[in-house]
Design goal:
Blueprint lengths: L7 H12 L3 H14 L4 E7 L5 E6 L9 H4 L11 H4 L11 H7 L2 E7 L6 E7 L2 E8 L4 E7 L6 H5 L4 H18 L4 E6 L2 E5 L6 H9 L1 H4 L2 E8 L8 E8 L4 E2 L5 E5 L2 E3 L2 H10 L9 E2 L1 E7 L4 E2 L10 E2 L2 H18 L66 E6 L3 E6 L2 E6 H18 L5 E3 L5 E3 L2 H9 L1 H6 L3 E4 L4 E8 L11 H5 L7 H13 L9 H12 L14 E4 L1 H7 L4
Parallel strand pairs: 1-7, 12-15
Antiparallel strand pairs: 1-2, 2-6, 3-4, 3-6, 4-5, 7-8, 9-10, 10-15, 11-14, 12-13, 16-17, 18-19, 19-20, 20-25, 21-24, 22-24, 23-24
Amino acid sequence: MTIQILSDQLISQIAAGEVVERPASVVKELLENALDAGASNIHILVNSGGRKLISVSDDGSGIAAHEVELAFTRHATSKLQSIDDLMRIMTLGFRGEALSSIAAVSQVQVITRARGEDVGTQMKIDGGCVKQHQPVGAPVGTVIRVENLFFNTPARLKFLKSENTEKKQITTLVTRYAMAYPTVRFVLEQDGREVFRSNGKGQLADVLIKILGLNNFRQMIDVFAEDRALEGRPAVRVSGFCSLPEFHRADRTNITLFVNGRWIQDTKLTYAVIQAYRGMLNEGRFPVAVLLIDIAPEEVDVNVHPTKAEVRFRDPQAVFSVVQRGVREALVKTTIPSQDFNSQTHFVFPQHSSDFSSTLIDNTPLPYVTDTQDQGLEDLSHIPEGLGAPQKPRTLPPLRLVGQIGATYIIAEGPAGMYLIDQHAAHQRILYEQYMADYLNQTISQQEFSGTQMFEVPVKQLKQLENRLGTLETLGFKLSLFGTTTFRIEAVPALISQLNPIDLMPHILNVLDQANVEDRIIQLVCEFAAVKSGQVLNQDAMQSIIRQLERCQSPQIAPDGKPTLIHMSGEQLAREFNKR
């Protein structure tokens, strides 16, 4: 077979394969053009999952009459003049490939009118060939209709998914742009039915309420973090929303990231969000998050992938750090609204038969404590202010102590049934949130040792410990080398000052080579300091655990992901006793 130069039409169809993968790809390119044109209102109309019709109308700046045909020519763009422009690009599109690629594999009609022009322009293109080009009356803006997608490349049609799948792809795409551009009003119609509408009033919260529903949005909290530009490091700002730990999903697809208004897929930044929830979610569960990252355009390369869904940061660690810190701080700072629970009219407690007398449990209702000072249990650390002033309603209500069973579980009653609380796991959660907050705020209290506390370090772990001495000091541990493989403990976190730290050190040595070593050490310290299973607690001690657990950010999950409590509603109890 002889070598031949491909025809322009075939070249366009091949190039279209990189840009136009499916109907949602067409919607994406047309939406980005509308946004780059400064549109305030965008209307998307789709039939048959985009196979038969995709129409995008906008009130943007429009296309000048003499540039309409040029706009559908390959590599024609108004976004770039030189390579320097590419390094600081702020528009969504810039390659000049989208319109020509779409036109090469469909039948397109465009009606547009630029600001300052009295008459609009209509042009029809069939498989890349211009069939009609004429003036027409039209408002300022652009309407592009794409019909019979892939009509001239039937092999491409075979690779499309079902109509419902393509519809879902388009809906997901439009809602992403609505999140990134809350000042723009988006309307999406599919097969004559409106499936999404944003109000364009500029509030991301309004968009998320439409997407998630009001009840789910109430489980979202604000995220904001900022790093100013320093020598060698870029300025980075992160804003948006993330879910409370109680609101989670089975996969990570609900973590949505934008960079300078562009939706991106970035496994490292997604991991940063997930790591911020470490100790708050069970394994296999993932948060919901919508985060908008703003960074100078020269600090990010968007010209990495044909779909521009992947980007490359000049300093990825700086961005990773701000994202993780922003989410983590939002979670730590979220607190419970103050309420008056002194009145017993808030709850209905079961009436106990006068024929039954318990010598083990005092069934007299106890007052609900709202003071910041807890009673009893001196070894329970007080949850600091800042964790105690929540912004969102929580899933754990105030509880009434009933008693203890097996010296391991605390029995409590709430407005919706019975709670069995694992005293060790619950105390771990309380201590973990306090310790983590102190670590993030750099306010960990240390207790120095006046005596001698020595421990031996295995040779294979010696280098790891030496490399982590600085990390340990930020967590409240002060160690010094005292011989070849012997270390002296000079200070420990005040949290464990009454315990023997020698018993803890082997466990710490075993996690020094792990990722997120700070979090792992915090977990170990809290497990070490927490009250133990099998430990009999007096009434004041149990009440103190309950009161502090109520104020925790994630009261239902221990730092290691295990549950802290089991809840049985009144209905569940009734079913167990065959009363329903």
